[in-house]
Amino acid sequence: MRKQNVLVPALAAGVAAYFLMDKEKRVKFKLKAQDMNSKIRGMLSKSQNHSLPVEKAGLPDPHDIEDNKMVDEGSQYGVHYYNKTIQQ
Question: Domain tally for the chain?
Fold first, then answer.
């Protein structure tokens, strides 16, 4: 079991070393890695640029009864769940 844990990473390192010994292959690998990195960063930046439609955040209106009721119920959910499980 222990040999198998060491064998796979050693084999992967050997294959990587064999392919990266040649300078042309190293350059190709480096360019592909940079290309993949830029694609991943581009995808991440696109997904993070989507702004959420938040109209009111941080300062709730004290006169908005429905919103305050929802917040109150949400904060009590954990307490109600705990009490329900303890009583069973």
Answer: 1
pTM (global) more than 0.85: no
Range of the domain at 22: 2-50+61-87
Residue 29, judged by CB atoms within 10 A of its CB (0-12, 13-18, 19+), counts as middle
Per-residue confidence in pLDDT tens, the chain, 88 aa: 566 678 888 888 888 888 788 888 888 888 988 999 888 888 877 666 556 566 666 666 778 777 666 666 666 767 777 788 888 7
Closest among 20, 18, 38, 42 to 29, alpha carbons compared: 20
